Model the fold of this input.
Amino acid sequence: MGQKTAHRQFSREFKRNALQLVMEKGVSVGKVARDLDIHPNLIHKWRRDYLAEGESAFVETGKVNTETAELKRLQKELEDVKEERDILKKALSVFSKRNW
Done:
């Protein structure tokens, strides 16, 4: 069967340097990708992320962006509140159908 390859992780500085070659020095994405032994699509992704988010696009491995952490916390809280709401709706329908 196919072999499983580990994903390589790149530092913030590595990504910045690769993008600097492409965006400031005018080196082609293909050349930079070959020289760094990475897929060109990865550089394109880094550039999109950088243009959208600036320096906060490149969070060090293992560290979570504060906005991302807050978003995940709020999503979890929303799930919990929806679950509580659904339970209360069911309880209300059960108790409202009873004849006391």
